[in-house]
Amino acid sequence: MKIRNAITCSINLTLLLFATFVQGNETAHKTNLLHQVKFGILAHDVGNLWSGFSREDGVDLNIEAILGPSVTVMGGTLRPAIGGSINTAGNTSKGYIDALWQYDFNTNIFLVLGIGAAIHTGNKNFTASDQKALGSRVLFHVPLELGYYVNSRTTVSVYFDHISNGNTANENEGLDTIGARFGYIF
What we know:
Strand content: over 45%
Distance between the termini: 41 Å
Strand order of the largest sheet: 2-3-5-6-7-8-9-10
Structural class: mainly beta
Oligomer: single chain
Shape: elongated
Order of helices and strands: HEEEEEEEEEE
Number of domains: 1
CATH topology: Porin
């Protein structure tokens, strides 16, 4: 119950922070509901990254919708996003909701950092040596992306994300994915 409360609290805090920035910031931007859609192919459960080791295999197909409401924060743009990754080998798949902060450099390069929550289909407890023990059904989701504007409507990027329960449960093996994504801006 403590785990569920901690994760529910983090989801609510993420949404509350975004709502507070949008309502209280004179640089809030009201735009279309959908700002961008991204599609990606990601290597699943990559070892030697944040999680430290790999148990699962396969490729993840990723899709993400970045919503239009935004606010300018610390020189970048903060937006909500919702997405998911489906593992092609039948291992852990996930859906997520994030608050994403994007900083655009003057050279068509951009950086995205985020925090949010994910729900997954994998194991909570250790049951097999080829599957991660993630500890709880709802996890923290931390994405990082470095990309390039091909033109005003399309982007390409290198994308990394990490899911784990942040040591709020006994088992916390975590899972990392990394790959390439294509984005279309509306």
